[in-house]
Write a structure and sequence with these properties.
Helix 1 packs across helix 6 and helix 3 packs across helix 4. The protein has one domain: Thiamin diphosphate (ThDP)-binding fold, Pyr/PP domains (Rossmann fold). The radius of gyration is 20 Å and the shape is globular. The chain has an eight-stranded mixed sheet with strand order 2-1-3-4-6-5-8-7, with helices on both faces. It has 286 residues and is of the alpha/beta class. It binds thiamine diphosphate and iron/sulfur cluster (SF4). The site of iron/sulfur cluster has 12 residues, from loops.
């Protein structure tokens, strides 16, 4: 390609670690789309980049923070949430977003996920659900739709997957949303909303992994899954979350939307109130 028509600089280069390119993701993978939405949300948030922090665990999805030019932390597998909680308690002024895969956040890290929501820590959690352990060769996990063929279940999985928005809502999360990599505007908007939430804001992003999930499950290219999202997704912000489980084989629509958006005191608010109460009592006793 003649050099003069190559752009010297991309408008997002200030928030991308261009020295880390090329990235590791396969053609058709959805993770880069999530990164683009996150960068856009950072820019539109009104919060300076130096106050944003992104934290991940391990996996293809968890490589995302390594490419974003803000303070980013690549922690151990399944432990991004406790790492982020510690940071939020010590530095509540930071806008902390955990971005990681379904294997990381829901399977190995599932225990941290439920307890962080129960306590309403003030962090954003963006779960990239590609229905599989991508990085390690396509083993099934806790979000793999039933009947999927995987490297660890070549005849189809028989495990019931989590309905994650229902799980998050049942634990009291003040913000629960689900979008896909096809719904980039809505996903960016949900990230912006999440950044304003006081407490744990959860977004599930459905994303193609043609290499490890799609190839054996009728989505051989990223585009096949994007077309499926386009055709099968129904936006319903008021959905009964008991009905939003995902079945990619039966023709059931995929329900997406900003399902829950409410006010609730965060863990830090409760702690502050408790300390104020204790101090008041101590003073009254001289
Ligand atoms: C304690 C520990 N167990 C297992 C692994 C191996 N491992 C690395 S990535 C990964 C799966 C990641 O899957 P997911 O979070 O869904 O991310 P994806 O690669 O699909 O984006 C596993 C099991 C590890 N690194 N550390
Ligand atoms: S293996 Fe899957 S999740 Fe990992 S980079 Fe490739 S397409 Fe993306």
């Amino acid at each position: 390609m003649p050099k003069e028509i190559l752009a010297k600089k991309h408008p997002d280069d200030d928030l991308i670690r261009v020295d880390r390119m090329p990235h590791i993701w396969c053609p058709g993978c959805g993770i880069g789309i999530v990164m683009k939405c996150y960068i856009k949300a950072i820019k539109e948030s009104g919060i300076p980049p130096e106050r944003h922090v992104v934290v991940s665990g391990i996996g293809c999805s968890s490589r995302l923070p390594g490419y974003v030019n803000i303070d980013s932390y690549h922690t151990t597998h399944g432990r991004a949430i406790p790492f982020a909680i510690g940071m939020n308690i010590v530095k509540p002024e930071l806008e902390i977003t955990v971005i990681a895969g379904d294997g990381d956040l829901i399977t190995i890290g599932g225990n941290h996920f439920i307890h962080a929501i129960r306590r309403n820590h003030d962090i954003n959690v963006v779960l990239i659900n590609n229905f599989i352990y991508g990085m390690t060769g396509g083993q099934h996990g806790a979000t793999t739709p039933i009947g999927s063929k995987t490297s660890s279940a070549p005849y189809g999985t028989i495990d019931n997957p989590f309905n994650i928005p229902l799980l998050a809502a049942s634990l009291g999360a003040p913000f629960v949303a689900r979008w896909t990599t096809f719904h980039v505007r809505q996903l960016t908007d949900a990230m912006l909303k999440a950044m304003k939430v006081n407490g744990l804001a959860f977004i599930e992003v459905l994303s193609p992994c043609p290499t490890q999930y799609g190839k054996d499950n009728s989505f051989p290219t990223g585009l096949d899954m994007m077309r499926y999202f386009k055709k099968m997704c129904v936006i319903n912000h008021e959905a009964d979350l008991r009905t939003v489980d995902i079945d990619l084989k039966s023709g059931k629509p995929i329900i997406i939307g900003n399902f829950i958006h409410k006010e609730k005191p965060s863990y830090n608010d409760m702690e502050r109130k408790l300390i104020e109460g204790i101090m008041k009592e101590m003073k009254s006793h001289g």
